[in-house]
Design brief:
This protein is of the alpha/beta class. The chain has ten helices and seven strands. It has a four-stranded parallel sheet with strand order 3-2-1-4, with helices on both faces. A three-stranded mixed sheet has the order 5-6-7, with helices on one face.
C-alpha cells in the first residue's frame, strides 16, 4: 500500500488500508452495483475516494433537505464534481415523520430509516434495485450513541469503513496520504441534533440555526483563525451556544448575530468538545 506520491505507508496504516481493500473488493464481488450515501462529510468522501482508488464503480447519492444547511449541500456537490463522482441529488425531508416531528429520542432512528427508504426508491427508479447501499460510518461510531446505526443495520446498509475497523484517525491519515482534500474536515451533524428532545423542529427554525452558525463560524480572531473555534447553537429549549474559544472581543458580534437570527437571549458554554449533546 502506497501514498499518493508512491511512498510506502507506515505499517499500521498499511494494515488498515489492506483491511479496507479486502472489504471493498468483497462488496464489489457480492453485489451487482454499489451506491454510497454521500453527505459530503469526511467519512463519506473518504469512502468514495477509496472506491475510486480500487477502480470500483459506484453511484453517490446526496440527500438534501431542511435538516441539512444549504451551504453544506452545495459544498458537498462541488466536491463530488471535483472528484468526478457520478452523483444523484435526492430531496428528503424528515420533518413529517412522527418521531422527528415530536422530537422523540428515536428521531435519529426514524430519520435514517426514512432516508434509506428514499435512497432505495431512487435506486429503484434508476434501475438499480439490487445495488448494495453503503454509508460512511467508521469504527468509532460503533462505540458512540448512534440510534441511526440500528436503522442502517435493519435496512441492510453496508458500512465498509466500520466493518474494516477503520477509525476516524485512520481515515484522516489515509485521506491525507491519498490526496483527499480537507482530510481534517470537522464533523457537521444534521441540524436536528441542535434541538433538545421534545422540541418540535420547524423548517424556519432550522434555517435560522444554519444561518446563525454560519455567521458565527465566519467570525475571525486577530490571527485569522475562527474566533470561537468549533461551535454549536443548541435549543434546550432556551438557546445555548457551545464554543471552544473564549468570547472575548467577539462578544458584541456574537450578540448581534444571535439577535438578528432570533436566538437572543442566549446562554453560553465554553467546552473542549461541542459534540455529544443530543444524537
Amino acid at each position: 500500500m502506497v501514498a499518493v506520491d508512491g511512498t510506502a505507508l507506515p505499517a499500521p496504516l498499511a494494515a488498515a488500508a489492506q483491511r479496507l481493500h479486502d472489504r471493498l473488493t468483497a462488496c464489489a464481488r457480492t453485489a451487482p452495483a454499489l451506491a454510497v450515501a454521500y453527505s459530503g462529510g469526511v467519512d463519506s468522501r473518504f469512502l468514495c475516494l477509496a472506491l475510486q482508488r480500487e477502480g470500483i464503480p459506484f453511484l453517490a447519492l446526496h440527500a438534501g433537505g431542511p435538516h441539512v444547511p444549504e451551504a453544506e449541500s452545495r459544498a458537498a456537490i462541488r466536491r463530488a464534481e471535483a472528484r468526478g463522482l457520478r452523483l444523484e441529488i435526492v430531496p428528503f425531508s424528515p420533518l413529517a415523520l412522527p418521531e422527528v416531528a415530536a422530537g422523540s429520542r428515536e428521531r435519529c432512528y426514524a430519520c435514517k430509516a426514512g432516508l434509506v427508504a428514499a435512497l432505495r426508491e431512487r435506486l429503484l427508479r434508476l434501475g438499480l434495485p439490487d445495488a448494495l447501499l453503503c454509508d460512511g460510518s467508521n469504527a468509532d461510531d460503533l462505540h458512540a450513541y448512534r440510534p441511526g446505526l440500528r436503522a442502517l443495520r435493519e435496512a441492510g446498509v453496508a458500512s465498509p469503513l466500520a466493518e474494516a475497523g477503520i477509525a476516524k484517525a485512520d481515515l484522516r491519515r489515509l485521506g491525507a496520504l491519498w490526496g483527499l482534500d480537507d482530510p481534517g474536515q470537522a464533523a457537521r451533524p444534521c441540524l436536528l441534533t441542535r434541538l433538545a428532545y421534545g422540541c418540535r423542529p420547524e423548517e424556519d427554525t432550522l434555517r435560522r440555526l444554519a444561518d446563525a452558525e454560519a455567521a458565527l463560524a465566519a467570525l475571525t480572531a486577530a490571527d485569522g483563525s475562527p474566533a470561537l473555534g468549533e461551535l454549536r447553537l443548541r435549543l434546550c429549549p432556551r438557546p445555548l451556544l457551545q464554543h471552544q474559544r473564549p468570547l472575548s472581543s467577539a462578544r458584541d458580534s456574537v450578540e448581534s448575530i444571535l439577535r438578528a437570527t432570533g436566538f437572543w437571549p442566549c446562554d453560553f458554554r465554553q467546552t473542549t468538545s461541542v459534540s455529544g449533546f443530543f444524537d
